[in-house]
Amino acid sequence: MRETVLTTEERESGCVFAPKFDSAGLLTAVVVNANSKDVLVVAFMNEEALLRTRETGKVHFWSRSRGSLWLKGETSGNYLMVEDILVDCDQDALVILAKPAGPTCHTGAESCFYRRLDPSAPDTRALSSASR
Q: pLDDT tens track of the chain, all 132 residues?
């Protein structure tokens, strides 16, 4: 992807996809279950991860901790299959609607967001299960 220079109007209202990566070459990707609409994972994509996601229909990320491309589900088989991709107004974040082939979190939970934070509780007892 070449960097495309767009006016604010073109970026916010036009039909040209020109992702705006941050200084580290990343953009935020929020993956949502296409059926339940639950947030599954928030991670980052670089240009290659975005390209591979679009080419294969399987969600790829850039792992900041490993410094490498990461195909979600490559080890576990719990791929995230793309149903739709939404782009925010600045084109620097994506919401990916996906069908998970199994649990999304490395802990075995369906979502990486399996705990609730009580904003008024002290940190020592602020987390509880977010199970429904």
A: 666 788 999 999 999 999 999 999 999 999 999 999 999 999 999 999 999 999 999 999 999 999 999 999 999 999 999 999 999 999 999 999 999 999 999 999 999 999 999 999 999 999 999 976
N- to C-terminal Cα separation, the chain: 41
| All domains of the chain in start order, with CATH | 18-129 (3.10.20.810)
pTM score, two decimals?
0.92
C-alpha 86/C-alpha 12 separation (Å) is 13
Cα-Cα-Cα-Cα torsion 57, 99, 116, 94, nearest 10 degrees, comes to 30
Contact 45, 29 (CB under 8 A): yes
